[in-house]
Amino acid sequence: MNTQNDSMLRRMFSQRHDGKQIDGKAFDVNFILISIALMAIGLVIVTSASMPVAARLFDNPFHFAIRHGIYLCLAGVAACIVMQIPMQWWRVSNPWLLLSAVVLLILVLFVGRTVNGSRRWLVVGPITIQVAELAKLFFFCYLAGYMVRRYEEVTENLKGFMKPLVVFFVLAFLILLQPDLGTVVVMFATTLGLLFLAGAKLWQFFGLVFTGLALITALILTADYRVERMSSFLKPWEDPFGAGYQLTQSLMAYGRGDWFGQGLGNSLQKLEFLPEAHTDFIVAILAEEFGFMGVVCVLILLFALVYKALKLGNLALKAERPYDGYLAYAIGIWFSFQTAVNVGASAGILPTKGLTLPLVSYGGSSLIVMAVAVAILIRIDFEIRVDGVQAMSKGSKKKVNKAKSKVKKLLAEAAPHNEEGVAE
Predict the structure, then answer these.
(1) What is the pTM of this model?
(2) Mutual orientation of helices 245-257 and 282-318 as an angle, nearest 10°?
(3) CA-based R_g, the chain, Å
């Protein structure tokens, strides 16, 4: 009788609840597929764009391609390691991560490697680390933690709103000493976006926007090379062989690409006409070889990644995981703004800034840090799904116990009774 009752319970529960079960995936595979697609496209374009300069500098046309392949492997290993780290560790450790970012930014000013007048890289044996990339990620981890710890202060008074900005200004000051205005602009935009999504008052938000724009304008006007970049951005064809040279060559690449491009490997601008073709101006070579449609495909992939990050942040907040939600928001805003700046600079929409295209451009530190950021998104999604399965299991047990009691009651009522009213 017990076996029959159990089988009846299983059938009843299955008929009623099977349609409401969540899928059996441990995490959203689309994060991995989109990232792999962007990295694969990046490897192809970096190889094509870097061959002429690599052949001249190193007598090996595949020098940068091989290094980029090594960076991709390291990025994959780093991402796999980060996916094993619980989000609880990031919640607890984010102040220490911020402190380590400050220490590294100070250290690079004294012992860092100088390239093209900028001291941005720490050399540790065969490894070269661009500290500003780590500082961005660590600052966003701290900012998400601050939003959780001081949410009421951020949304209700000016003091709580200003505290994270003080931390940002400290980091910005250290980064500007390198100098690296592009990274500061990305961090500022991400901070603005996160404060806005967290519910900061509009007058505080717009006050910060105007203050930030005023400070950025002042930073541009106090450095001659920045003023030159701004003037060349506004009127590049007035000095096509001087200040406007890089932008005019980039625009030529866009023009030659037309709708469907000249074909892979057929770019002329990569023949050392366009400086930094495989790093900051990778989109120009992509446009020349694959045309407008090629650029659109890459932007769609990046938009999909950003959309999924923001959607994941919203889902995390609904699941009462505020730290995970704010961090996912920060990563999404970071990726979107950095993409906009990189593409806008190469297309002449924005002034030239030394920012890479996420997961596509050549650059070990940027590639690895971006892969780590995607791995954090995957971990957030995984933990939300695990919470959902656990909640469903607890709910299922309650429903099964309730159903068991109902069935036992029905069986008891349906059982034949003897004349004395005792069930046989």
Answers:
(1) 0.82
(2) 80
(3) 28
